[in-house]
Write a structure and sequence with these properties.
Elements: H1 6-18, E1 29-36, E2 51-58, E3 61-65, E4 68-72, E5 76-80, E6 86-90, E7 97-103, H2 121-129, E8 133-135, H3 138-157, H4 162-182, H5 199-210, H6 218-225, H7 229-240, H8 244-262, H9 267-273, H10 279-290, H11 294-301
Antiparallel strand pairs: 1-7, 2-5, 2-7, 3-4, 3-6, 5-8
Length: 306
């Protein structure tokens, strides 16, 4: 029996993650219901263009989203806007069981109907406040669980019109989250970090957030933290589930995607500004993590001009 190499297994996991998330999909929706994963089963380098909702049914862990670390506990709900670096890190002794919803906004649309309210209010507020966790009230938890179970039933039974039923259920879920978010007092994202993460991990994440394209090395981060590089690397990976290099590359990829969508800069200029060591390295990393070349990504995501 021939064993797969680590690289082949990793490539297959990334392909499984990336393949359904097509902006042009007729039904841009993926659902995982009450799934329990051990730390080694979590997908690495997790970033995609679709919106994501994660609801924790039970268990414990930590969740790296953007550049914040959150504890994962029963009843927590996380809203993750598209193109946001994130990775769950389940507790090995009490792994998280969660339901996860992935969707593109085109599935719901965003008509105002004469109101200032948006069905994507929870996502927009998470992005502006840099706080992605919602601790739900008991009555809202019951509502969320009811709608998640309804989506699961529709997808399992595949009755005529099930996709319409899923879209309606998702709109109702987004409505509840928007109302819950509107009633919530803004929280300090730092207060959400688990005490198991030393302050210097938080400081390192903040530095990498402020300077994603800068040449920040493991040695310099360890020096700032006054610990050895080996110790820094070990604690960083335990806290975030990612290596420093993986996290840096994903932040650079996010920055590059935004530049490709929102500017007319040449691809070489984007690569340089985002801190990639060379143009070939940029092409290699971008295609590995996004699935297409930078040029193809820009063509697919830039609005057509008259």
């Amino acid at each position: 029996m021939i064993m797969d190499s680590h690289r082949e297994r990793r490539k297959r996991r990334l392909t499984v993650l990336r393949k359904p998330f097509d902006r042009g999909a007729v039904f841009p929706f993926v659902f995982v219901h009450r799934d329990t994963k051990q730390p080694h089963q979590e997908l690495p380098d997790h970033v995609h263009d679709w919106e994501e909702i994660v609801y924790v049914h039970r268990g414990r862990g930590t969740f790296l989203i953007d550049h914040r670390l959150y504890p994962m506990r029963e009843g927590d709900l996380f809203v993750i806007p598209g193109n946001t670096v994130h990775r769950a890190n389940p507790d090995p002794d009490d792994p998280v069981t969660s339901s996860v919803v992935f969707f593109d906004r085109s599935l719901i649309g965003d008509r105002s109907l004469g109101e200032s309210f948006s069905l994507f209010a929870a996502f927009d507020r998470a992005k502006s406040e840099r706080n992605h966790r919602i601790s739900l009230r008991p009555e809202t938890r019951r509502t969320v669980e009811r709608w998640l179970d309804a989506v699961h039933d529709e997808i399992s039974l595949l009755r005529p019109g099930y996709r319409h039923a899923v879209a309606i259920a998702l709109a109702r879920l987004l409505l509840e989250l928007g109302r819950e978010t509107a009633a919530r007092v803004p929280e300090d994202g730092r207060a959400s970090e688990p005490p198991a993460a030393p302050p210097w991990i938080r400081d390192a994440l903040d530095l990498l957030e402020r300077r994603p394209g800068a040449a920040v090395t493991l040695a310099s981060l360890a020096r700032n933290a006054n610990v050895t590089p080996a110790h820094f690397s070990r604690v960083f990976r335990k806290a975030t589930g990612m290596t420093v290099t993986s996290y840096r590359i994903m932040k650079q990829i996010v920055l590059a995607k935004e530049a490709l969508m929102n500017t007319d800069d040449k691809i070489a200029a984007v690569a340089e500004r985002c801190g990639f060591e060379s143009l070939p390295h940029f092409y290699r990393m971008f295609k590995r993590h996004v699935g297409v070349s930078p040029a193809a990504f820009r063509k697919r995501h830039r609005p057509r001009r008259p």
